[in-house]
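User: Show me a protein chain along with its predicted structure.
Assistant: Here is one chain, sequence first, then structure tokens.
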Amino acid sequence: MTPDTLKDLVRTVPDFPEPGIQFRDITTLVGNGPGLAATVNHLARMARDAGAEAIAGMEARGFIFGAAAAVELELPFIPVRKPGKLPVATIGVDYALEYGTDRLEIDPTSITDDQRVVIVDDLIATGGTAQAAVQLLRMAGGTVDDALFVIDLPDLGGARALHDAGVTVSALMQFEGD
């Protein structure tokens, strides 16, 4: 399946979570077996082409696509978690949200020095979570030069912000507008 065909499998839900927002819902994509498989195949190929030695995915939807791509490539998967979810000593990064802050954590022993880590997630909007993940993975010693997304919402500037942080961003599809 081509990225254009896959784009047709993403449901748009108007006015969610608030009026004026066009929510891009991937549950219809992951609920389609051939569509999910094709999405993972595309992401795995892109990760391989980027020289990935490990795949990192942010909780929670990054786990779906990132872990599947890691399995396909037989690479380690690094879960980037919300606070308090890992049973070992962690390192973390706080980052700004529209209304407040949040935090991401990883087990720093899950990365070797200079390991090429490619981030995989479902969607990039403003890029705050992805930027925090890049910072965190680099703090742990990883080399993070590439981030892959199923969906890019370019009008929200996340890909641009990651690019400014020295990360090449690739997405299977884009949706203009919010």
